[in-house]
Structures
1.
Amino acid sequence: MDGGESFFQRHQRLAKQQSTGVDTYDVHVVGVTFEGRQQVVRSIQANDRLLLRRDPANRYDRNAIRVETLNGVQVGFLAKDLAAQLASRFDQLGAPVNAIVIAHLGGDNPDYSHGLKIRFQLPAQSNTAAKAMPNLEDEL
């Protein structure tokens, strides 16, 4: 299972999110091989915190959602199709969303590209006026 989560743990987490009105997303960060981002990605470890921030001025995608370190260094983006689905929800929140790294992909070989899989939460569709969960680790 992704991130070392067993089937039972995943079932419990999904049941809990249904009762708490929270949507949880486990996704790969895209664009990590551009603009020197590999150096940043290599320094990130599982359980590190990241921020997701809307980037409506992005010249390639008006729905873009950036993935950044807590210091504001860009790591990549959410996939374009997912960003298109979530952009309006991010806009309604009006604030960055916390994420946690659940897997660092790639090896110790500096010749290979490294990647990240992250988990983040948003208020459920019926609850979009609420704020994103500030204490993500409580839900993991």
2.
Amino acid sequence: MEGRDARMSLGSSRDKNVDDPRYARNHGDLVVPDDPSLAAFISEVEATGGGDFAESLYDAALSTITALDWQAESRALVIITDAPPLTGALTTATEADVVAASQAASVHVMTILVGW
């Protein structure tokens, strides 16, 4: 990200059925890329827990899309995960919910699945 107008936020998510907290984001809203809150947030992220293989990806995506004050003309949510999303009764949000919210907010959602 380059330019004075670039803004970003970082978040982490876990399985909402077994992990607490299940969702966290850097303090504040969208911030400039060199904001100290981003480095502080990353230093606190720890990969633990998870009651099953799938994770609360849809819930985290929906939380992020609806929580941020998106003002830029170009908007993107990049999700990096090592597991597929929870579905059915194990998740509150669905793929359709995420698609609807992202379209309403004009946010492009990109998911990167690693190590699976």
3.
Amino acid sequence: MAFLYFCNMLLDKSLIRSFSDYLRLEQSLSDNTIEAYCHDIELFRQYLEDSGESCSITEITHHDIEDFFAKLYDLGIAASSQARILSGLKSFFKYLLQEKICEADPTMLVSSPSIGRHIPDVLSYEEIVSMMDCIAT
């Protein structure tokens, strides 16, 4: 089985560097996007290491990812930033599947944080009437 070689592969800087090359050469993403994705994956790797969780690619679960996002929430990281981080992790695990480095994508069961919509400011009825009066005179 092709996956046996990678069964103990760790989420480390060399794997993140390979992912960066993939994003640059095959996905043609901007340097800023690549830097953000790699930074976010490094944050996740650091979180796993600090929390005593395994950094082995095949042992990372959706629970690890959900716990990571709970930590980000506790730190006050905005939902929009969390959504970008999840996007980077999803892209990373898609790459790992494509390269046959892992058999499953633990991000599949993780939902994106809801991003509140900003309702635009609108003119009041009186302000519209006032503008219309200005135009008429």
